[in-house]
Amino acid sequence: MNARGRRSGRPDSKPFSSPADRLSPFAKEQRLAGLLLKQHFSQFQTFAGTRRVFALVLSLGLLLAACSKPNNKKTDSQIGVHQTTDEAGRTITVPDTVTRFISLAPSLTEIVYAIGAGDGLVGRTSYCTYPAEAQKVEAVGDTLKPGIERIIALRPQIVFVSTASQLEAFTKELEAHHIAVYVTDSHDLEGVFHSIERIAEVLGKRPQADELLKQLRGRVSSVAEKVGSRPPVRVFYQVSDEPLYTIGREAFITDLIKRAGGISVTADIPGAWPKYSAESALAAKPDAIILPTGGSMGDANSNVASALKRSPAVTNGRVYKINDDHLSRPGPRAVDGLEDLARALHPEAFNK
Questions:
Q1: CATH number of the domain bearing residue 338
Q2: Strand 81-85 vs strand 319-323: parallel, antiparallel, or unpaired?
Q3: Which of 194, 222, 301, 317 is the most exposed place for a label (fewest CB within 10 A)?
Q4: Do the domain assignments include residue 116?
Q5: What would the pLDDT profile of 47-56 be if each residue is shown by its tens digit?
Q6: pLDDT tens digits, residue range 269-328?
Q7: Residue 20 forms part of a structural domain
């Protein structure tokens, strides 16, 4: 068999190729320019017209310039990144410029819009309903069971999660697709403010966050001035009536109640959202009961638990229904919740 018909014995093999076929695109274009120059060299000898010579040289010059022009388009591996530490103490790698991200907690969605970063939000949970423009963003499931495949398909650079969402289980799967996972962890109002600062740093919105925090801290200081000298009110915060759940030491709402001029009767219970026995509720004897209702909860949790119906709070008509979105979401509107609580517990301080 001659060389032209010789092939390797593999069925998927290709015909023999010349070394030129294995050259890089830049080398091929340089060789092409050389061949053109050689092909037309005889024309330089035959035709003495300076116009034709000039035109040919100009064409070849442009071709060589195109061959040597560098490719300035950055590859994914060349995009700037840096390391940072999230609020769970994890070291993560994030892009210097984040343009696509997902929020998997309503409080975090509210934060990114409050600092002016909403344009980069490409995914959110079905519970992320505020502000209104967030509802136009594609939902990727609820807070506890987001759709991992959908998240990956949206190609975010980073996913923001809350420790309350119990989302650590899929962190490795997202990071395997080069998607950073930033975990927040707010246990009090200062923790909320810290989360705002850190998220703003990741998204390049620190000046906007500084202005927002200045306003929020001013409102917090105003509440402190009004209620600071008043005796604290003993408060029971009812998360749900049947079964009875309340707040514990690690709930950021415990801090809100204290700042609002109250003291949670369950402040020393470990955890954030402990179940509470009827016997303990009877013994607590709170002077005020807070029912977080309305908002995203609708009419749920609008009735006082049976074990609390003979408490001083019910007897004296001190049962307050407050928008749960202001109290249960550790974001910018937590300051709205603080003001709502302070007005309920110390109305006389706001009637001046």
A1: 3.40.50.1980
A2: unpaired
A3: 317
A4: yes
A5: 344 444 444 3
A6: 999 999 999 999 999 999 999 999 987 777 888 899 999 999 999 999 999 999 999 999
A7: no
The candidate with the shortest Cα–Cα distance to 233, out of 257, 216, 256, 215, is 257
pTM here is 0.76
| Token duo for residue 337 | 């919740």
Distance CA 268, CA 249 (A): 5
Number of domains in the chain: 2
Domain assignment present for residue 340? The answer is: yes
Question: What strands, in cross-sheet order, belong to the sheet with 158-162?
Answer: 121-123, 101-103, 158-162, 180-184
